[in-house]
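>> received
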Amino acid sequence: MKEQPIFTTRAHVFQIDPSTKKNWVPASKQAVTVSYFYDVTRNSYRIISVDGAKVIINSTITPNMTFTKTSQKFGQWADSRANTVFGLGFSSEQHLTKFAEKFQEVKEAAKLARDKSQEKIETSSNHSQESGCETPSPTQASSVNGTDDEKASHAGPADTHLKSENDKLKIALTQSAANVKKWEIELQTLRESNARLSTALQESAASVEQWKRQFSICRDENDRLRNKIDELEEQCSEINKEKERNTQLKRRIEDLESELREKETELKDLRKQSEIIPQLMSECEYVSEKLEAAERDNQNLEDKVRSLKTDIEESKYRQRHLKVELKSFLEVLDGKIDDLHDFRRGLSKLGADS
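>> returned
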């Protein structure tokens, strides 16, 4: 419970390649949780990220650290203690901005904690030095208070308390001197770390410039590839049209081949028929002769028909004439018959009278 998370986000974690110091190596296969932790006991801040059971980021933030935005969704910082550079890829520029703002806040807090710690150390060191200067030496104590025997015989409670305080101050001074040496070593370590960090930042800046150039080259290459893709799509469209035309031509060729086979079949039939043409010609000549004979017979028959028609017309004329004569004869006969009837009736009447 000594460390508590104060800010949490998710990002893709990268580390600089230790061999080249230029290329990024993915530390996580996917976006993981990245958190700021505050240690109450040590008054320090850390960035921690865990991927499963593996700790991929454990970076203590110092006032000398700087978080740099290299793109709209990517940022990095160098950790001299871990001797590496961490990179984070976010899902949006807003998440990157929040993380950078929190980094600046934690950095300022770490700076304030360091300043307070140095003030406490300097105050403790000053008090130790002042106490050491005011403490009388054993020689001075002997000259003032007399011999040791006299000191022992005449020492009061105030001297005893002063001696105990003097012993405590000596111990504090010794510890302060040891702490000063320790802080000097840590300061030298921090300076070396700062130098390495500056070198890493310079290399990172050079890498950024190189990445910008590579990005520009990649963007130009991307534009060229897009133009090439457009050209290929146009070519593909033309190829599809050509394929359609080829398909139509294939269908036309198949139709023509089918017609050709039909024509070849017809030609075979015609050749077979041409073999019987002489016989057909002879039969045709025979039929022609018959036709000519039939035409002659037909002509004769037509002449006969015309003569018969003439005879029929004459016969009709005679019939009409005979009908007229027969009618007139019948009329005469009717008159004669009427006369005979009258004559008969007269004879009958005469017989009846006689």
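>> Residues 132-155 have pLDDT under 50 and may be disordered.
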